[in-house]
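Handout, page 2. Input:
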Amino acid sequence: MKDQEQSLPLLEDEILNPPEPWKSRHLLLSLRFRQVIIMVALGLYSLLVTGIVLFQNLPHGTTNAPYSPADHILQFEQHKANPDKHTIYSDPPSPEVDKAWDDLVRPIYFSATKEELRSSNEVPDDTVSLLDMEGYLGTIGVYHGLHCMRRIYWHLHEDTYFANRTAQARSVEIVHARHCLGVVVHDLMCNANTALYTFGYYPDRDPIPRLKSGASRQCLKWDSFHQWATDRAPGYHPRLRAPANLLGKSGVKGNLKADDIFRAD
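Output:
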């Protein structure tokens, strides 16, 4: 009984002094408000995580890719990293090989518009223009690299391609070839192939390990791009006009030739 009597004041206090209704409502609203805040915070966190994942999975170079006149035509596809397809460009010299190389580098020159120049941080008034068609003389980078690869191919077969050159002319060609080697190395480093290659060993065919790869790499859809570049090409020997900011100045010829820029011989 004594224990019960001692406990009564506590029970009595709860009965005689129940929580006031406005306090109950306040507590309920406070709880709901906290729940809403937590739900909003979780939602924002989910959006943040989703954004990070999507950003990390964007194709390489997508977010800050520099401008190119070819942007609208570029498409890509998966190719074998180590292709087993034969390429004519490494065959010994022949009329067929020469034609293949000629077709490949034919768009070495490009007719660029004034808008394309400005979008590429170029100034039209200090750029050589085309005399027989509207536009400015340009080249798309990959064709400079392909031109260089053909020059290097020619040096592998100097007896065929430089048979009648003097020693002085050959020394000039060597300087050109060194320049071309630097261009190709820079292009390879800038557009690095990061696919994994491994080595296999086939003693019945070869006494040393040989390169192999089951990986894929992303490649430009070449045919549509090459056709676009060919359609914009002014030919191997376009007639040119000196930059506008030089016209009329002493010693400046108004009309120029492209022959000595990318020699196609």
